């Protein structure tokens, strides 16, 4: 279990500020979704937490500043699922997921029987065991997404960063993927930080939402607190109706102007 | 579609060995055996072929003669023994070293640069070697340093200098953030070295034939000295690349994914490029810039066997070595007693074969 604490975090690309002075705390086992219009800095925050971009301020994972961790130790603490994972043609699902064990190996180390056992277990839990020997380029969109999740889980990291997990998936697969992540989160007590575009799904699966606009945090709270018609209208420039689903969450529906 | 986590009861029912994992890349024993057989066969052809007929039995006796418990040396004609030990054996062994190294270095370059067109000469090794050899042939023909001909030494230094220059240029311009910057630096350095080499060649016309002969590749002067000269570099180069098989597979992921796995792309690229360059520079020094081996051998293995570097690296060594020994045998027998440049043979034999493989494996990922 690991909490994630961001204190006065700023990130810029070529002198242009993308994230400004951000303070955010995510409790152990919590699912926090970063929402906001395009260019709000959602992906950049995830990349800063994973130390993929330089940042100013402090990011602390489970009590350890990320800047003080070696690359391998950081990868043991944080797994990242990128928006469009690269799926090398010809590589099998088992081989791809086994790469997730890299942080647990020495530089020239080889996978042990324990690593293979972990991967076999992950494949079984994600119903990928029958596809273990299949080439990644022969998988459907949903299967590919599951393979990517399996690789991230094989890392065995307590913090999972997910960038737009439902992009280019149909509504059924969007639901399946998010249910799967939620189930795994509870089972493995993962802390999940996700950048999400789809507001209804973000509201339904997250414990809390953080609304970002132009790199600044403008609202945090539960879906009911953040997903309000005035807030969405003000920051997205969208005409929407927010519908209370009688205890099943909140739905955000765009309406024609 | 609903896919959930399988409950623990289902997991227990799934059974099977806890560590037996299907779908992991393993070197298929049949291909490994085929590679060994092909290499032995090509070496046998290379040793047997030549203007003086020497039978397989004589070759076997000559090989066993130095062993203390085989007292058969006296039964071998001294002339034949001399031909085998002074000419044919070292030439075949050198062919094995040159072919295996060029193929494995090509596979390694393709891996670290994620570029299927990368070959061992990508960062200017060929241009540097050509310039070094051209300068030595034009201005110091027949010179030796500590008993070693200056041409291979100059080629080795030239190849190393070109790649070091490309690396330094790429690092100063892009900080090695991307492989593209390094490749472009290699192109710039190679073009610069080629221009100097062309100028020297044009002004020193008396040596032009020797320079061309060297550039097109040859194992003509192969002897045990050449073998001993390159062996340490080749052994180190192949061993380092072999140990990086798993990491070369990891480099096929996206940059962010690799970094978030705690893997340093820059470190792998630096170590593998240095190792591949060391081996390439050594074999280019004694064999000239033999083209095509570093491209067609790894790609043929990818198309026929698999794309994992756990498969591509060991099989590239075996089949690259076999291919070059065969090409060298053809180069010295087709127009005997004259010899064809080996680069002509590798391209002439390799290109049609590669086209056949590509056509017969249509749809396979390259």
Brief descriptors of the model:
heterodimer, A: about 260 residues, alpha/beta, six-stranded mixed sheet, four-stranded antiparallel sheet, 12 strands, B: about 375 residues, mainly alpha, two-stranded antiparallel ribbon, about 70% helix, about 0% strand
Structure, explained:
- The complex is a heterodimer of chains A (257) and B (366).
- Chain A is globular.
- The mean pLDDT of chain A is 90.
- Chain A is α/β, with parallel strands linked by helices and 257 residues long.
- Chain A is built from nine helices and twelve strands.
- Chain B has 366 residues and is mainly α.
- Helix content of chain B is 70%, strand content 1%.
- Chain B has a two-stranded antiparallel ribbon.
- In chain B, helix 9 packs antiparallel against helix 12 and helix 14 crosses helix 15.
- Chain B is globular and about 65 Å long.
- The N terminus of chain B is likely disordered.
- At the A-B interface, helix 2, strand 6, helix 3, helix 4 and helix 6 of A face helix 10 and helix 11 of B.
Q: pLDDT below 50 for ≥5 consecutive residues: which ranges of chain B? A: 1-15
**N-C termini distance of chain A:** 46 Å
Structural shape of chain B: globular
| Low-confidence runs of at least 5 consecutive residues of chain A | none
Largest sheet of chain A: 6 strands, mixed
Using the CA coordinates, give the radius of gyration of chain A.
Answer: 19 Å
Quick one: how many beta strands of chain B? 2
User: Looking at the chains present, what oligomeric state does this protein adopt?
Assistant: heterodimer
pLDDT averaged residue by residue of chain B: 84
* Average predicted confidence as pLDDT of chain A: 90
Greatest interface by residues involved: A-B, 62 and 39 residues
Instruction: Going across the biggest sheet of chain A, name each strand in turn.
Output: 6-7-8-3-9-10
**Structural Rg of chain B:** 23 Å
Number of strands of chain A: 12
Major β-sheet profile of chain B: 2 strands, antiparallel
Give me the number of helical elements of chain A.
9
Order of helices and strands of chain A: EEEHEEHEHHHEHEHEEHHEE
Summarize the amount of helix of chain B as a percent range: 55-70%
What percentage of the residues of chain B does DSSP assign to strands (E)?
Answer: under 5%
